[in-house]
Design brief:
10 helices
Length: 261
């Protein structure tokens, strides 16, 4: 009996691997992708990057403009995350099984969060690009909508996991709904909520670069501009500044998480 179980499990694994291999081969044939050429071109690409993609003395003159653009990108990401977190908290409280009011409100809250979470930020950028054009507002709303959907789901799970026992205790004493939220739910969940907000800030700063290329704003626009004008030294300086900014923000975020958790 046990031998049959393991034999079926091995057969399923073998079938899944064969299916994955078949899909990969079909994709290669449809796209005419040359696998050997792809792998052999990696050393040439690395050699080109080593000889051309580095900042020089001339590109350093563009450093003030690059710092201004990265500051704009970081601030827009933080603003979008902070405002989205506020709305996400309200929807999470309404949609939570522990604190939700139930009925239509809970259903609408969870449905809205699901829709917003399943649309990628880049897709939001393309959708909003039609309405708002290439400007900062498009990038801001794209980050806002993507963050709102993700944080609503994360906040809802945090509320359901942490505060159920304390909520029941306060309900038994006759405390009002808003007293339960303000005195029990939010204080009990605040470390997890801040942790999720910091995580989304880091993620949004990374995504804002790609969104900037689409929306023509921020550090993404600057990189696209230098790259298309074949100014690879300035483009490499943009990448370097971006990596340093993400490293600093991630370090600060990790430190805050250690303090609050």
């Amino acid at each position: 009996m046990q031998d049959n179980f393991f034999a079926r499990k091995r057969l399923k694994t073998l079938l899944y691997c064969a299916l994955l291999l078949a899909i990969t081969l079909i994709a290669i044939l449809i796209t005419n992708y040359d696998v050997i050429k792809g792998f052999t071109s990696i050393p040439k690409a690395a050699d080109w990057a080593f000889n051309n993609f580095y900042p020089n003395e001339k590109s350093l003159k563009r450093l003030p403009v690059i710092i201004s653009s990265i500051s704009e990108t970081v601030l827009v990401s933080i603003a979008a995350t902070a405002v989205a977190a506020l709305f996400a908290l309200m929807f999470a409280i309404a949609g939570s099984h522990t604190t939700g009011v139930g009925g239509v409100f809970g259903f609408v809250s969870r449905s809205v969060a699901t829709v917003f979470r399943n649309i990628d930020v880049s897709a939001w950028s393309m959708i909003l690009l039609i309405s708002f054009g290439q400007n900062v507002l498009t990038g801001y709303f794209a980050l806002f909508f993507g963050t709102f959907g993700f944080l609503t789901r994360a906040f809802t799970e945090s509320i359901d996991e942490v505060s159920s026992s304390s909520v029941e205790a306060l309900r038994s004493t006759g405390a009002s709904y808003f007293s339960i939220i303000s005195q029990s739910v939010i204080p009990a969940c605040i470390p997890q909520l801040i942790s999720w907000i910091l995580f989304m800030m880091e993620t949004n700063i990374r995504q804002a670069t790609l969104i900037g290329i689409l929306t023509g704003t921020g550090i993404g626009f600057l990189f696209n501009l230098y790259y298309k004008s074949l100014n690879f030294s300035a483009a490499s300086l943009v990448v370097l500044v971006l990596v340093l900014a993400i490293f600093v923000i991630e370090t600060v975020s990790t430190y805050i998480r250690k303090v609050i958790m």
